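BUG: 3D viewer hangs when loading the predicted structure for this chain

Environment: internal workstation, default settings.
Expected: structure renders.
Actual: progress bar stalls at 90%.

Input used:
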Amino acid sequence: MNKNYQEGRNRLLLILCILLFILFGALLLWSRSSNAADAARLQELAAREDQKDQAEEQDASEEARPEETVEEETEENQEQASTGQQNSENEDQESAAEETATAPTLAKGIVCWGDDLINGEESATHSYRAVLQNLLNDSGYNLTVIDKTLQGAGTLSMMTMAGVPQEEVQSYITAHQEAAQGQELPVTETGIRDLTPEQTQRNDLEYVPVIFMGYYGGWNHDPAELARQQEAILNTFPQQEQYIIAGTFPLDGSVDSATLDSVMSEKWGEHYISMASITSNPASTYEGQADLAAAILQKMKDLGYLA
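Structure tokens produced before the viewer hung:
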């Protein structure tokens, strides 16, 4: 009995040992699996922490850069945009200024000052003023030609009619008398015609003046003096940028066309029209007056006074 008991006990212990061994092996396997899982989890957490740290470093770098670089870039972009806009505005202003400077205001009308070489009723048909009005109408220009001429009068009367100060006109008379040294002078060199209130009234100040005077004298046979008298009339207008000066040699032949034109061209430049250069007809003929009218129209186009 003791032998059997001993064998049973041994078998039981063997079984227990086997079970313990199996349990120990199971625990060992479970421990290894748990450790592997923990290691994997720790690696994943470490990787996440690394990504988080990198992200934080990048954010910190970006947060620091805008205060210096990004802000500078923004200011630079704004400055470039502002500069570009300013340059564009300046270019527009300069362009507008250039257009204003190069495009003169169109004429409101034309006023003819000086000599009337066609007398009587024929003046209303054959004078250069009448022909010029017809040419403007035929060309589609709605412009009025005002008549401020005098028949047979000298330049002293014309300056008086324009409102040139009397002391200035008298200075010419005094100079003519002194130059004559007691000799008798033509009336146009010293006399001033009686003028009506209608003649001295100025209703032409906004018109382009065409000054054609000197045929009957009044300037002591001196083209330079005639130019000063023309300028005195021109100065009675509020603006002196738009004007035309026309000239022909005087009735008494005291000055030839070449001498007169030389002085006038130097004084008035492109604003001057010489009768000798536009026609072979005398200025006092119908044909000469028509040629002068056509030249005035063309000159106004050339100077930009007509659209």
